[in-house]
Amino acid sequence: DNVGVLIDTMDDETQAGGGAAVIFITNDLTEKVLDEAMSKQAKMIITYHPRPFGSFKRLGRDDITQRIVLRCVRAGILVYSPHTACDNAAGGVNDWLADSLLSLSSGSKTEVIEPSSKVEGTEFEGALAGKCGSGRMVTLGSPTALQAIVQRVKEVTGLRHLRLAVTDKASSGVDSVTAVSKIAVQAGSGLGVLKGCDAEVWVTGEMGHHDVLAVVGEGTSVILTEHSNSERGFLPTMASTLAERLRGRGYNDVSVVVSTTDADPLTIV
């Protein structure tokens, strides 16, 4: 995705710094979320999903994304998206989701499914070597029941309900799947990364109907949270990490705030 600065409203005065400022974090930048950010007098919005995403040849008020862009420019709000970079980073979204499963049994471990060796030509070295890339494979220390995995995913995402597809090889539904040793994890839309993974369970945000049928037919159960629900729970961690690093650089007057109105557009009722 198009990560980085999406709407650049910085001027010489802004770059010089100084004074109090608010950085506002959201998973999706909607008009409702923008209203909230403006009410908090935010000067920067970090939106996990990029908006704008595509290009356009004109700016007008008839299109919702263009309205958001125009409002941000008028208000002097800089918009930045970390999306795929933060998915793949060491300590990023995929690690947050995968690491939450380590407590299911002692001796569990994670590894990157598709490791990245460098970014923009710079090789990863030292502690970062082998720690960055797409997807995570969780190998549990001892076989674990699928029901326990479902409950843990609910806890870390803060969800009451998930979508679950149990492998066709199960004898009698979710309670009969008791020997899960490997869980493949990819936040968002995970099929492209997880396809072909040797795991009894996949955890991701969303998949197509026929893709789910194919996966469960091959012997893998699938846990779906809805797309942004697999990412949103990481935002408080992002906020606290950013605030700590800003203070370490002397920016003590900068507040980092997580949206309270941002939510997945789909609700299971």
What does this structure look like?
This protein has 269 residues and is α/β, with parallel strands linked by helices. Helices cover 29% and strands 26% of the residues. It has helices at 12-16, 31-39, 64-75, 83-88, 93-99, 146-157, 191-194, 209-217, 235-248, and strands spanning 4-7, 21-26, 44-47, 78-81, 109-115, 118-119, 122-123, 133-144, 163-165, 180-189, 201-206, 221-224, 254-258. The strands form 3 sheets. It has a 6-stranded mixed β-sheet with strand order 5-8-10-11-12-9, sandwiched between helices. A 5-stranded mixed β-sheet has the order 1-4-3-2-13. Strands 6-7 form a two-stranded antiparallel sheet. Helix 7 (191-194) links the parallel strand 10 and strand 11. The longest helix has 14 residues, at 235-248. The protein is globular and about 60 Å long. It starts with a strand and ends in an 11-residue tail after the last strand. 32% of the residues are buried. The mean pLDDT is 91.
Class by alpha and beta content: alpha/beta
Instruction: Please give the radius of gyration in angstroms.
Output: 20 Å
Number of strands: 13
Average of pLDDT: 91
Q: Which residues sit in consecutive blocks of at least 5 with pLDDT less than 50?
A: none
The major sheet is characterized as: 6 strands, mixed
Q: Helix content range of the residues, please?
A: 25-40%
Q: What oligomeric arrangement do these chains adopt?
A: single chain
Topology pattern, helix = H, strand = E: EHEHEHEHHEEEEHEEHEHEHE
Kindly report the spatial arrangement of strands forming the biggest sheet.
5-8-10-11-12-9
Give the terminus-to-terminus CA distance. 31 Å
Which band does the percent of strand residues land in? 25-35%
Task: Label the overall shape.
Answer: globular
- Tally of individual helices: 9
